């Protein structure tokens, strides 16, 4: 039996029946609903909002949360496979699900009161309430401890001032999880669309993640009730704890993007006849394709083991950093090589590699840049903090 070039080590055989079923369901959604439209969405700079009800119907929003909050109690490997199959379609679709699930529903579940959980989570799982996560600020996202956005107590309310930048879903969102400095350290606030003084402005002219909404958020003396403060966390570990969840999913996503690129490079290369033979019969091209398969295999093994560690309650943030760094780098390199194998045809969005390569420029930057993750791993192995 020939091996599957997209799964050389038969990772699929390591999955449970439930994990395979989740993967198949999301793969079908990507094939039937995302791939036919996503090239046009990217060209038009449009997030396909019409897919949100179907994404929710499939149970992909907050899928790991308990059922009473609208989730399905899926394990971490299932969540990873969801990210992988969605990002095989486009990083923007996976981003939407990452932000909603890991960056918005997770903090409400982990740090919110029972009242906040019941008020927000079921609607978010149903895709009726969309969230965004505001941590990054215009003066520099890598160092969130130095945030300027602040909240000051005023009777039973808080007064929020500041700005956030590069916020996925910003203009779509009904609710923003906003991290702000207070007299007691960094705290999270649920800022609702329509609150006086809260505005969102979409970022245009993007060459990356074009099928995703990215925005700046502004807070001009926004009055936020105490009931909208997340009561159960203080300090940078609040937002960083959410990032660990999202970064975990992001280690899987780029595997899907890389698989899409390898698949397209193989198909195109087998059909492209130059010097009287398919270009895939040249050693130089085979080396590239073999290297892609090698790097995808390593990334699959990393993410699967990370998922098993997470499900066992043993995953460490440094392990997430290593996999986020490795898998984003793997995918962006593969997307660029695949683009090259397609020659001139590779520069159009008729084929997926250029779209994935451009998207991955964001994925390798957000949720901690490649350098940030390298320095996290460096800190672990040397014991010296280089930040
Ligand atoms: P440091 O002193 O290391 O830590 C402060 C406190 O946080 C705890 N901690 C973590 N907790 C959970 N998960 C993690 N990954 C954690 N890392 C640290 C830590 O134990 C400590 O707790 P405590 O109790 O002692 O106070 O903090 P530092 O200031 O040295 O930070 C280091 C650094 C650079 C790693 C951190 O600031 C960082 O990760 N910077 C990058 C910021 C970032 O990733 N921003 C992402 C914004 S959101 C986004 O991009 C969404 S894109 C979404 C999409 O579209 O998919
Ligand atoms: P900076 O922090 O200014 O970094 C600039 C450069 O300096 C980078 O190369 C970095 O690696 C390097 N650098 C920084 N510190 C060091 C150091 N100590 N040593 C060596 N080099 C260093 N943020 C949110 O909060 N919510 C979102 O939903 C969100 N969505 C995003 C969507 C998109 C499409 C993009 C592009 C970004 C998004 N972000 C979001 C922001 C993202 O997290 C930040 O862009 C990222 O954390 C980097 O911050 P920065 O862009 O300010 O770059």
Descriptive overview:
Helices cover 50% and strands 15% of the residues. The strands form three sheets. Strands 2-3-7-6 form a four-stranded antiparallel β-sheet, covered by helices on one side. The chain has a three-stranded mixed β-sheet with strand order 1-4-5, covered by helices on one side. A two-stranded antiparallel sheet has the order 8-9. β2 and β3 form a beta hairpin. The structure holds 3-thiaglutaryl-CoA and flavin-adenine dinucleotide.
Number of helical segments?
Answer: 10
Which range does the strand content fall in?
5-15%
Helical amount among residues, as a percent range?
40-55%
Question: Outline, from the CA principal axes?
Answer: globular
Strand order of the largest sheet: 2-3-7-6
Helix and strand run: HHHHHEEEEEEEHEEHHHH
Distance between the first and last residues' Cα:
50 Å
């Amino acid at each position: 039996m020939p091996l599957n070039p997209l799964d050389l080590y038969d990772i699929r055989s390591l999955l449970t029946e439930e994990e395979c079923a989740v993967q198949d369901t999301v793969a079908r959604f990507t094939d039937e609903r995302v791939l036919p439209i996503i090239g046009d969405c990217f060209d038009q700079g449009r997030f396909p909002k019409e897919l949100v009800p179907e994404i929710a119907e499939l149970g992909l929003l907050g899928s790991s949360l308990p059922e009473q909050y609208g989730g399905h109690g899926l394990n971490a490997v299932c969540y990873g496979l969801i990210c992988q199959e969605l990002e095989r379609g486009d990083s923007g679709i996976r981003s939407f699900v990452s932000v909603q699930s890991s960056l918005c529903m997770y903090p409400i579940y982990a740090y919110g009161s029972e009242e906040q959980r019941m008020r927000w989570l079921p609607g978010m799982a149903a895709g009726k309430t969309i969230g965004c996560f505001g941590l990054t600020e215009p003066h520099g996202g890598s160092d969130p401890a130095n945030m300027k956005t602040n909240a000051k107590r005023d009777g039973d309310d808080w007064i929020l001032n500041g700005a956030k930048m590069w916020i996925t879903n910003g203009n779509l969102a009904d609710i923003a999880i906003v991290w702000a400095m207070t007299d007691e350290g960094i705290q999270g606030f649920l800022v609702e669309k329509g609150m006086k003084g809260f505005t969102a402005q979409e970022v245009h002219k993007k060459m990356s993640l074009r099928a995703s909404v990215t925005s700046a958020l502004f807070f001009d003396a926004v009055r936020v009730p105490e009931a909208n403060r997340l009561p159960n966390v203080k300090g940078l570990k609040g937002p960083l704890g959410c990032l660990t969840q999202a970064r975990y999913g992001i280690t899987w996503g780029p595997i899907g993007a890389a698989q899409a690129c390898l698949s397209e490079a193989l198909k195109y290369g087998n059909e492209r006849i130059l010097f009287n033979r398919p270009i895939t019969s040249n050693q130089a091209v085979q080396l590239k394709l073999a290297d892609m398969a090698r790097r995808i295999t390593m990334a699959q093994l990393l993410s699967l083991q990370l998922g098993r560690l997470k499900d066992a309650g043993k995953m460490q943030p440094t392990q997430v950093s290593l996999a986020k760094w490795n898998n984003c780098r793997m995918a962006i390199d593969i997307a660029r090589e695949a683009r090259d194998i397609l020659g001139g045809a590779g520069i159009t969005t008729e084929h997926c590699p250029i779209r994935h390569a451009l998207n991955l420029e964001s994925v390798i930057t957000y949720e901690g840049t490649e350098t940030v993750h390298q320095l996290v791993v460096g800190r672990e192995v040397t014991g010296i903090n280089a930040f």
